[in-house]
Amino acid sequence: MVGEEGAFVLGWDEVLTEEELSVTLKVLCMSEEEFKEYKEQDGWEDDSEEEENSTLSNEALSRLKSPCKKLLYDSVLLTLESYGADLKAEQDLLNNKEAYEKLSRREQQALHVRYGQKRILHQLLELVQ
Q: Kind and range of the H or E element at 11?
């Protein structure tokens, strides 16, 4: 459902792979009976126009149904656990000029990327709490 990489792309203001995330949440939050019905009705094709025109903005994410919010929340926690250090540790390293300058250019760039990713994930946690 999520393509070859098995990941969703999140931005500061919205989900960039919104169709994949929307379908995945919908299916994972269905009961077995609902899933069978959805599948029998060719639910994999385009859904209603309402869903086609909606975007998964941050505001929309905060209005998701509880089961979808819980699923997203738990998924974000698992993703954050896969990082070696927490957001605070990354921020401390960025703020420590001496330690930061000891890093190679590549390590500095990686630090900025990880920090940005973690900030987006923490923002998502707040939206779906």
A: none
SS3 for 47?
coil
Domain count for the chain, please give it.
1
Q: Is 21 exposed, middle or buried (0-12, 13-18, 19+ CB in 10 A)?
A: buried
Please write the tens of the pLDDT for every residue from 33-83. 988 888 888 765 555 544 544 568 888 888 899 999 999 999 999 999 999
Cβ 56 vs Cβ 15: under 8 Å: yes
Domain boundaries, position 43: 18-128
Within a domain: residue 3? no
Q: Which token pair is 108?
A: 């500095």
